[in-house]
Specification:
Ribonucleotide Reductase, subunit A; 0% strand
Length: 330
């Protein structure tokens, strides 16, 4: 029976082109001015502000790791369109990491938040556990490709969730109603829109290099609870540095952190963990199709109007005038 199911899955995977991305993936070299962004970027909502700010600390190490991993996989790609998608994906992910790192240094650190502990956790996760040499151990040759494929499956699983979260930040108008800081909103929505834009690449690459449904299924069972735990743990560490939370002693092990996440989601300020779990269900399907998640039109519309993306386009399209052609000073 297992062999029959495996054959059916393989036939399904072999159908259609290797790439399902229908837009050109380009790097938008955005910059954000953090001078006037308050620590409570949603006014009078410190829990949600810290909870979302933890994204600035979770993402960069993982995104740089994505880039290293995909550069390793590039020579193995035999489909030219998919190869171009992967190159675009790498450029976008590198820009995401730089954008969130800048937010940490120019915004959080400048307002008295120490990111070192949270960064160390992510660095250990991606730089030690998920490294080419896990825990510093050289793998035997026969294990290198399965280990690469397993990590590509990890990226595909994470990218499903980032697409879901990308659509959430694009469609959530509650933050606007509460007069959230426009710079941080633009960072989240620019990033979210590009996650929607390249939502098929990681899954396409995983399949192209022989990733199996069964591996993806078990990877999902592991990854999503881990992400939830890392998010709550990191947010708790940020809150523990704020005197307003001193009496709460924030920790991933304290039930009030999880209860508060639920209550804030009911107010429309955060995505509910139950809602996120529900949105992972399609990924468990053998016939999962990332093009059915999210909306390229909504993402493209935001990217066309994002203040940071528009500014980056204007800078990149500005003609370079030769000094010999510049008007002489009077």
């Amino acid at each position: 029976m297992k062999q029959i199911l495996g054959a059916l899955l393989k036939r399904h995977q072999d159908q259609g082109p290797a790439s399902k991305t229908d837009v050109e993936l380009r790097q938008r070299q955005v910059k954000f001015d953090w001078e006037n962004t308050p620590l409570d970027w949603i006014p009078n909502e410190p829990f949600t502000s810290y909870f979302i700010n933890e994204i600035n600390l979770i993402l960069p190490e993982g995104e740089f790791w994505f880039c290293r991993l995909y550069n390793k996989a590039l020579p193995m790609i035999t489909d030219e369109k998919l190869r171009e998608d992967v190159r675009g994906f790498i450029k976008q992910e590198a820009m995401h990491a730089r954008g969130h790192n800048a937010a940490t240094e120019e915004y959080l650190v400048q307002r008295g938040i120490d990111p070192s502990r949270n960064r160390a956790v992510m660095k250990y996760l991606f730089g030690v556990i998920a490294d080419d040499k896990p825990f510093g151990k050289q793998l035997p040759k026969w294990a290198e490709m399965p280990w690469l494929r397993a990590r590509l499956g990890l990226v595909a699983t994470i990218e499903h969730l980032t697409c879901v979260l990308g659509m959430y930040v694009l469609e959530n108008k509650r933050w606007d109603e509460l007069k959230a800081d426009p710079v941080l909103l633009d960072l989240l929505r620019w990033h979210g829109a590009e996650e929607v834009e390249h939502r098929s690449v990681a899954f396409d690459l995983y399949k192209h290099l022989g990733g199996s449904y069964f591996s993806r299924y078990y990877m999902t069972l592991l990854v999503f609870p881990l992400i939830f735990g890392l998010w709550v743990d990191g947010a708790a560490n940020l809150m523990s540095q704020d005197a307003r939370f001193a009496g709460k002693k924030p920790s991933v092990f304290r039930p009030w952190m999880w209860a508060k996440w639920f209550s804030e989601s009911r107010r429309g300020l955060l995505p509910s963990p139950l809602w996120l779990a529900y949105r992972t269900l399609p990924y468990f399907s053998p016939w999962y199709d990332p093009t059915l998640e999210g909306s390229t039109d909504i993402a493209s519309d935001y990217l066309a109007n994002s203040p940071a993306a528009k500014a980056a386009t204007a800078v990149n399209s500005k003609p370079v005038v030769s000094p010999a052609l510049q008007p002489a000073e009077a």
